[in-house]
Design brief:
By secondary structure, the chain is mostly helical. The protein has 2 domains: about 1-80, no CATH class; about 85-220, serine acetyltransferase, domain 1 (Orthogonal Bundle), CATH 1.10.3130. Helix content is about 65%, strand content about 5%. It is built from 15 helices and 4 strands. It has a two-stranded antiparallel ribbon. A two-stranded antiparallel sheet has the order 3-4. Helix 5 (about 95-110) packs antiparallel against helix 6 and helix 12 (about 220-235) packs across helix 13. The two termini are about 25 Å apart.
Amino acid sequence: MLLASCGRDTIVPVDNFPADSTITQVELENYINRTHIALLNRKPTASEFSQSIQRLDINRYDRDIRDAYITSIQDMQRSRWAVWQFLSDRILDGTDTADVYWSAQRYQQRVNNSSTQTEQDYWQGLLDRTNNNIATLNGWYSNDSTFDALIGWMVRMPVYDEINMGTENFVVSIYQHFYHRYPTDHELEQASDMVDRQWGLLYGTNGNSKADFIGIFTTQGEFKQGIIINVFESYLNRLPTTVESDRFLNHLSDGWDYQKLQRYLLTDSEFVNG
């Protein structure tokens, strides 16, 4: 690009221009609305919108400013709830957190009113699973539970079993939800054995319970790749390229958490101008 100055032509390298130098006012306002919906599952209030405009207009091309802006939204308690709710909409048919607490109360009543030990053991098992989910959910709210742990307990909730009844349906749904593919014959056989409390071998690790299967499943690189795919589809409306997938998989393996991945994509010019 050539700029005329005092009779001389000065060459300004394109790389010196801001990558986001075409952010219009409309795009900035849309960005604020879209980030609030993405992180809080709602549009900003009038006050939040005004404050966001002021904050981002300091330099709308500065990614560090956008990063601090996104972090401030992620720090809100509702942002933690929204992560759970988006997951629930995807894998639990929209079960609300209130439903989880209500289920725990109902299971406790069934335990207290059971007429046989077998009946009591059945309801106690459901209660224990629900209480563990509540503990993980509370840990997620207080930043003590990881995103992986949150998923691990959500798929062990009774409602997930009700949606995906039967061992094979359960295993297939886990693979489709998080690996974005159907399990191989070997994976289906070995995972099903584990879920049915028989010994199975997956990815070099033995297990004989549903908890073992989920624990093995969620520690694989393909699980992290599935998270990357979900975030790209949610925020950029496309699949990651092979290069992007490898890059962010390395980041997640090196210590990035789900929120850092969120923050990176939500501050990227592709999302800003989208």
